[in-house]
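User: Structure please.
Assistant: Input sequence and predicted structure:
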Amino acid sequence: MKPMSNLKSFRLEGQHATEVPGAAVEVEVELQRLIETDMEAMLGIRFLATEYRPGRHGCRIDSLGLDENGTPVIVEFKKGSDSGVMSQAVSYLSWLESAHHEFEALVRKVPGGGGR
């Protein structure tokens, strides 16, 4: 596995990705902020929240968004491997299934949310 300092940032232009010069990412948080800033252009996901702590589930979602169909998208940033990533994903799914009203309220709060 390559160290985080070898990661590079890219800008999506049509069907082509171009490297953003001098934007080597050194830590997970920097990468998260870069992606959140242009999440819709890069991934087709409308950004809703960062470091979101849903109700009683005790987890923290790195980035939360909506895809073009209005489906919730959770983006988790990891440097290296994490043996707990599957249980984290199950926890997020549990939250989405049990607290869909909380998620819908969050969508309505975000400009352009419209409560899809």
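The chain has a mean pLDDT of 80.
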